[in-house]
């Protein structure tokens, strides 16, 4: 927060007639510590008040904080003067700037409390924000109460600010779709050394809120947005695939739960493929999160539906989970992708070699091909050739990268 002019510049919003009232809520939640005297709570409460007053005073002159901050017990409410604007964008601004302002306050205050009491304490800073319409007819006190109540509800659990910011970041990805792109890692035939296909891997341009694609997809799942995110990732995988040769395959990761959804329309995928002059026979759906499969018979019927259109099926991370063998038997995939936990140092580990030989034997009897993942050493590659593994993938054979248009 560098001042009112920067604040207005950051918002970059079209003016509207509606005036809004903002509120920040700050409360310190102490975690119970065995043997801690009751007097400690009172002392810590006084320390929190002193610390918070000092921090608010430091930022008041260089921010949009008003002079009407109020305490209710040890809860601090800080009103914010907001210009006319769009409520959603005002909330987003308040979230980002409040988080930036108070990002270090929790650890800072714990250090301060420890230095003043010679005791290490445990606690969490609860922070919430709200933006409510500034309806003059309701009176100043009623607006203050409404904004305070909404801010308390937002900040009642630890980490609510960060979750809200992650939610906003996810929605921006879903709406703008500009920060999501695909890279492609080659899958090599061990019999001839040619590239058999590529696995499309989702990447983020900005890792501020999600440290890689896995946390992003996990968060989208908790928010009920997994289907929407996977659809965009699938679109990116197909639209970025400029260099696929005639007989090469494009492996696309698909969550098992998504494939059972009626929203998963293969016709949409087919339209995208046609734009790239590709066909379903070029595509392998790589099934992840097999634990999400609750009805294997229904899932098999869905797989048969996609196979009838020309798509193939691969089971990912074979050997890494308890459900792998059941998935192989029930789904009868076209490819088994053996997890890198089995492949890593397989040449030097007798038990891993036994597992690999067993999987190769199962695959051979089923008439399916094994793809070994995570190859990083020549010795691993040589062992895979000896076993008779058909395909391999890993940094030794090629790193993920975009196709060049």
UniProtKB/TrEMBL annotation:
CDD domains: EAL (cd01948). It holds the Pfam family EAL. Gene3D superfamilies: EAL domain. This is EAL domain-containing protein. Residues 163-405 form the EAL domain. SUPFAM superfamilies: EAL domain-like (SSF141868). It comes from the Bacteria. InterPro entries: Cyclic-di-GMP_PDE-like, EAL_dom, EAL_sf. It comes from Paenibacillus chungangensis.
